[in-house]
Write a structure and sequence with these properties.
Elements lengths: L10 H39 L8 H16 L12 H19 L13 E4 L6 E4 L4 E4 L11
Antiparallel strand pairs: 1-2, 2-3
Helix pairs in contact: 1-2
Length: about 150
């Protein structure tokens, strides 16, 4: 396997990240808040209705969000779950498995191959995903991943 190394970010690329990253964080905060709000709303509605069911947990709403986004990423219809591209779906599943394998089961080596298409590589302590053709896809702050391995 050849080693892919991220190019040093240009001023234009850094500006791009300065614009995109706050919007991404704000969007994710809205998603997390919406999940919390949905769980609280159901708990309140159960109490008002006198139902003695255990309230629907945040995990349920997180999973529902993940499932809809997974189908959407695969090009399918989130309402029917039909029409998605199975190859894209498998790549996403493989990526999830590689996160488990390389970050949760082997945390001392986080900067490793994460799929047959993408590889997480360090770049002056700023990891980035590299496509197998050598093009930089996304860069991340170390705060998102923790410290890189040896």
């Amino acid at each position: 396997m050849t080693e892919n190394i991220c190019a040093i970010s240009t001023q234009e690329q850094r500006k791009y990240l300065e614009i995109r990253e706050p919007a991404e964080r704000a969007m994710l905060n809205k998603v997390f808040n919406a999940i919390d709000d949905a769980a609280a709303e159901v708990a309140d509605a159960f109490a008002k209705a006198g139902l003695e069911f255990e309230p629907t947990s945040r995990d349920y709403f997180t999973f529902a969000t993940q499932q809809v986004l997974f189908v959407r990423l695969c090009g399918g219809d989130p309402e029917t779950l039909k029409g998605g591209d199975p190859q894209i779906g498998q790549r996403i599943v493989n990526n999830g498995q590689h996160i488990i394998d390389h970050y949760w089961q082997k945390p001392e080596y986080p900067c490793t191959q994460i799929s047959s298409v993408f590889q997480l590589v360090p770049n002056d302590c700023m990891p980035c995903f590299m496509h197998s053709d050598g093009a930089t896809i996304v860069t991340f702050d170390l705060d998102d991943f923790g410290q890189c391995g040896p």
